[in-house]
Structures are given as C-alpha cells and as structure tokens.
Amino acid sequence: MQALQSMKHMLFSLHTIAFLLFCLGHIIVYFLKLPSTFGIFLPFFSLSMLTLSAGFCLYLSKSKLFVLQLFVLFFILYAYYPNALRLDGGQQSFWYIYTPTLNLGFLLIGILQERGIDSFYGLSKVILAVLLLAVSYYFLDGFSRELKNILDTNIFPFDLHASFKMNQLSFLLSCITLSFLLLFALFFFENQNDQLIVWIFLYLIAPALFYAQNTAFAIFNTLASLLIIITLMKNTYAIAYQDALTQIPSRRALEDDFLKLGSRYTLAMVDIDFFKKFNDTHGHDIGDEVLKLVAKQLSEVKGGGKAYRYGGEEFIIVFTNKDSDTAYMYAQEVRENIATRGFILRDRAAKQSKKAKPLKLTVSIGLASNSKTNKTPQEVMKQADNALYKAKENGRNCVIKADV
Fold first, then answer.
1. Which of 65, 168, 216, 363 could form a disulfide with 155 if both were Cys (CB 3.0 to 4.6 A apart)?
2. Cα dist. 142→96, 136, 185, 272 in Å?
3. 52: phi then psi, degrees, rounded to nearest 5
4. R_g (Cα) of the chain, nearest Å
5. What is the mean pLDDT of the segment spanning 34-51?
C-alpha cells in the first residue's frame, strides 16, 4: 500500500507532469504533421487557454504567475493579432524581441516573493510588467536592421546556430535567467509555485531556442497554460483535503473517504498523551513539531492503514478490509515505534552544547470495526473513541479494542 501511494505521488508530482508535457510539446512540434485546420484554430485555442489560466491565477491571487502570463498574452497578440496592438507584426522582429523580454520579465518578476495581486507588491509587479512591455512595444514598432545587428553581436567564440535558433545574446540571457530561477526556487523559496515558474520559463523559451516558429510558440504556451491550471487545481485540492501543518489528509478528506469504505474496515482513534503539557511547558512551536512527528509515524503504519488528522492532537487511521484483530497488530507496532523514538527537544542551549534533550512521547489508541450494530463509519468512530477513553484510563500508551 505504501509503495502504491509513493508511486502515485511520484507519477502525479509537479515535475513528472511538467516533464511529460514538455516532451509532448517537442513531439507535437518536431514529429507530427499538423493539419492546416489545426493551424487555424491553434491561436484561438492558445489564447483561450491563456485566458483561463490567467483567470485562475487572478482568482487565487497568484500575482507572479498572473503577471508573467501578461508577457505571453502580449506576444500572442503580436504574433497572430498584430492589428489589436496597432502593429504590423513580423516573424523576424518577434523572435528578436520576444526572447530578451521574456528573460527580463522572468528575471525581474520570477525571483520576487509571492504576494497577493491586490497588495502593494502585487500591483508593483503589474506596473513593472507594463513598463517592460511598453519598452518591447517601442522596439517592435521601430524594429530596424541596426537593432538586429546589435542583437546579433557575437559574444562567444563559436557559432550557436548549428544547434540553436536564437542569437548569442539571447542564449546568454536565457542561461542567466534559468540559473537565477533555479537558485531561488531551490534555496530561497522552495515552494511548488516557484518551482512551477522554472518549468514555465523552459516551456516559453523552448520555441525560441529550438524552432523559431509561431506554431511551436503557440503549442508550448498552450501547454504552459495547461500546466499552470493543473498545478493550481492540485494546490487547491491540497488546501481543501490536506492538513497544512502535518501534511497528511485532513478531516474533510476522511469524511469523503468514509463514502468509499467497503463492507469491512477498522478505525483507530489516536490521541497524543499529555499533549497539553508539551504546549504549556515547551510552547506551541514544540507542540507543532510533536504533531508533525506523530503524523509522520502514523502515515508509515503498515497493513494498508491510512492516517488522517482529525483535529487538535487527535488522529484517525483507517484500515480497509481489516478486522480489529488484524488492525490491532499494526496499531501496536506504530504505537511502539512512537514510544521508542520519543521526541528530541533541540532548544538553543542544546544546540550550543551539541546536546539534545530526549522527551517521552506516547500515544493511546482505540480500535473499533464495523459490525451489525455499528454499520456506519460515524457509529464505528464513536466506538473507537470509547475504546480510546478506556486506553487513557488504563494508563495511556496502549491500544484498546472496543467491546463487540
């Protein structure tokens, strides 16, 4: 069960989905011959996907993702609907201005911290993007051979055109931007949205790097919009169904999973012993660390059990297709693991002396299975709660099965 959950997590992780979509983009552009009708609808479809993803970002107040998509919107309009910008369009000017604008936009905005779109910082990002796009508009409107020659200035002592479509200045800018985005995503922000921005940059720079074709540009920005939508939907689901502190499924997820239970299951109510004392003695920060430690231990329970945070210091483990006798063994094992491990208190004094203070940490568990008299999960849970109360009365740090 744990192996299946790990595989599922890996297959549906941001990086796996992003990599597969990235490969799909190259396959579509490089190998597939698209019908002419597809080329007619592609710009509209690309613009529709961008509008949808930007609207999603705006609704969820993701200012960085929203503002970065303004750059894509501008160049979609220039590539396919130049009259909307009162420009005459141009294949050559597009790629010469698109790449520096994209790099500067991601470099200036992508490394900033996320703030709500309606905050001062969010509005500042919008203003910065508008100013940068105004400069791009100026160069697109007055694109000349002299500007082209300046952008084509050789920086490296070798020719890039044998492998890439962009000029050396754009290539250097792209390498610098990607390096900064990776640096900030890995060492400063470390959250999924900032890692997503790295992938979005790769999607948007790929057509300039390898193809220099409007069709490739439309396909890759469509896939970028799709990736943003998928990621934000996953984030929204996690907010609703995952406990923010312990990162295990929440009570809402438990209530939904109750609807999927089969004809045989066992519920284990888990409570941390003397948790209030941890909070009162060591503070809420230590209490949070205890909750996270217990949640991690419970999530590793064997026997196909799945742990949820029910509320406060209470957790529930659902054992599907297990009776109380079988679940009892697994509950005992996880209880013993927690008691054996304990909790290592690392305060400032301990860090300075390189010593850690071990604290006793135990849990009490009440078990109950469904039966003819306890048919619904709520009834079983009540029986498990009664068994938990008996475990507390029995001296704590033990597992008690409900009376059948």
1. 168
2. 12, 10, 36, 69
3. -65, -45
4. 28
5. 84
To the nearest 10 degrees (0 to 180), the angle between helices 192-206 and 91-109 is: 160
365 contacts 268 by C-beta, under 8 angstroms: yes
Report how far apart the first and last C-alpha atoms of the chain are (Å, whole number): 28
The residue type of 65 is L
User: Counting beta carbons within 10 angstroms of the beta carbon of residue 273, is it exposed (0 to 12), middle (13 to 18) or buried (19 or more)?
Assistant: buried
Which residues, in sequence order, are bridge partners of residue 308? 316
Q: How far apart are CA 306 and CA 334, in angstroms?
A: 12
Please tell me the distance from the alpha carbon of residue 349 to that of residue 329, in angstroms, as a whole number.
40
Q: What are phi and psi of 326, to 5 degrees?
A: -70, -45
Q: Does 348 score more than 60 pLDDT?
A: no
Q: What is the pLDDT of residue 356?
A: 59
The CATH class of the 251-401 domain is: alpha beta
Domain borders along the chain are: 12-241, 251-401
Q: Please check whether residue 307 is in contact with residue 315, taking contact to mean a CB–CB distance below 8 angstroms.
A: yes
Q: Any idea what DSSP says for residue 83?
A: G
Whether the CB-CB separation of 335 and 363 falls below 8 Å is answered with yes
Q: Which residue has the tokens 């080329």?
A: 39
pLDDT digits (tens, 9 = 90+) for 128-150: 999 999 999 999 998 888 988 88
Neighbours of 131 (CB within 10 A): 11
258 vs 21, 262, 371, CA distance in Å? 34, 9, 15
Sign of CA dihedral 15, 18, 20, 26: negative
Q: What is the 3-state secondary structure (H, E, C) of 181-217?
A: HHHHHHHHHCCHHHHHHHHHHHHHHHHHHHHCCHHHH
Q: E strand or H helix at 272, and its extent?
A: strand 265-272
Instruction: To the nearest 10°, report the CA torsion of 187, 193, 199, 202.
Output: -90
